[in-house]
Amino acid sequence: MGNWFPFVYDMTMKPLERTKFKKIRTKLINEAEGRVLEIGSGSGINFPYYKNAVRVDAIEPNPMMKKRSYKNIKKSQTSIQTYSVKAEKLPFADNTFDSVVATLVFCTIPKPIQALNEIHRVTKPGGKILLFEHVRMNQAFLGKTQDVLTPLWKKVCDGCHLNRDTLGLLEKSNLTIVNVEFFYKGLFLSIACVND
């Protein structure tokens, strides 16, 4: 993966953030309360949206993305600490977080089940897990197209799996899904879970 990906990612996201993505992020992140863990914070695009968090611990394994996030830390009203770690091995104690946020990141996590187990471990009982993700589409032709494109797409886009079934992974996890909203004909999902 080249150093160009963080720049291209930011340029791609800007027009989307001016439209429906901004509304989706705002609504989702307003639900995050107390001490918050953000998984794969990337360039910090979510940081300015935190209003009800006391503190955000944000993990991002890509050093170039993390570096780009510093400008968005300054735009946040919330205290934000970043860490260069992966979601599959979180450096936090059990039952630490009131809320967990992950937006457009589960597609890139190499071992998503292990990451979900870690999220379950570090989230307090009753804690919220809030995700906004793109997923494999249910429509046969489009889903198959995602399957065909994924090997090349992963190489070009920092390990992104176009065809990841994040909702299916959540259904098999120790988390309880409480709400799912579908956007862009099911390509994007906003998912609210609770740690029971």
From TrEMBL:
Q: Name one GO molecular function term.
A: S-adenosylmethionine-dependent methyltransferase activity
Q: Which CDD domains match?
A: AdoMet_MTases (cd02440)
Q: Which UniProt keywords apply?
A: Methyltransferase, Transferase
- Which sequence ranges are marked TM in the entry? none
Top-level division of the source organism's lineage: Bacteria
Q: Spell out the coiled coil positions from the record.
A: none
Query: Which GO BP terms apply?
Result: methylation
Q: Which residues form the Methyltransferase type domain?
A: 37-130
- According to its UniProt record, what is one Pfam family this protein matches? Methyltransf_11
InterPro entries for this protein: Methyltransf_11, SAM-dependent_MTases_sf, Thiol_S-MT
* Name of this protein: SAM-dependent methyltransferase
Species for this entry: Virgibacillus oceani
